[in-house]
Structure formats: structure tokens, C-alpha cells
């Protein structure tokens, strides 16, 4: 149970670190917006013109790094959810066995 708390704390600190990077990338260009939870699109959307690598190479590369960071955040979030379920089951087993 103690191990679960330690792992959950590490995952939380990692989540804060990852979201800090996402906020940093959001501040580098206004086209990213303020959202931490969404990817910016890399594909052509009907009615909306996407910026390609030929139009703005620096922005597209930043966007791809930001999208990869958002993916890491989602993986970290779901691993944290799994660890939380493990921790809750350990706490319930401790309560029910005593």
C-alpha cells in the first residue's frame, strides 16, 4: 500500500512536469490556444486550411513536439488511473481483512 502511494506521487509529479511543458509550448505561439488536453490537428480539415511543413516549418515542428507531449500526458494519466485503482483495492482489502 505504501508503494502504491509512492508510485502515485511520482506519477502526479510527472503529470505536473508534462503539463508545464504543454503550457510552455502553448505560450510560444497563439495558434496553439490555451488547452492542455487537446491535440492540434496535423491533417487537412474540410473548410479549414492547415499549416503545412512548407508554409511554416518552425510552427509545424513545435506543434508535432507539443502533440507528442500531449500523448505522453494521456499515457501518464491512464497509468495513474490504473495505479489509483490498484491503490484503492489495496486499501479496501486492508480494511476488510482487519
Overview of this structure, please?
There is one protein chain. With 98 residues, the chain is mainly α. The chain has one domain (2-97). The chain has helices at 2-28, 57-97. The longest helix has 41 residues, at 57-97. The two termini are 15 Å apart.
Task: Please supply descriptive tags for the structure shown above.
single chain; 98 residues; mainly alpha; 2 helices
Number of domains: 1
* Approximate helicity band: 55-70%
The shape, in one word, is: elongated
Poorly predicted runs: none
Strand content: under 5%
What is the average per-residue confidence, as pLDDT, rounded to a whole number?
Answer: 86
Number of helices: 2
Rg over alpha carbons: 19 Å
Distance from N terminus to C terminus (CA atoms, Å) equals 15 Å
| Major sheet | none
Oligomer: single chain
Q: What structural class should be given to the helix and strand makeup?
A: mainly alpha
H/E topology pattern: HH
What is the number of E strands?
A: 0
Amino acid at each position: 500500500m505504501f508503494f502504491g502511494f509512492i508510485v502515485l506521487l511520482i506519477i502526479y509529479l510527472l503529470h505536473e512536469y508534462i503539463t508545464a511543458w504543454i503550457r510552455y509550448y502553448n505560450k510560444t505561439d497563439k495558434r496553439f490556444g490555451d488547452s492542455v488536453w487537446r491535440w492540434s490537428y496535423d491533417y487537412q480539415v474540410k473548410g479549414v486550411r492547415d499549416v503545412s511543413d512548407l508554409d511554416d516549418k518552425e510552427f509545424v515542428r513545435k506543434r508535432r513536439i507539443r502533440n507528442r507531449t500531449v500523448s505522453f500526458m494521456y499515457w501518464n494519466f491512464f497509468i495513474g488511473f490504473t495505479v489509483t485503482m490498484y491503490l484503492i483495492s489495496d486499501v479496501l482489502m486492508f480494511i476488510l481483512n482487519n
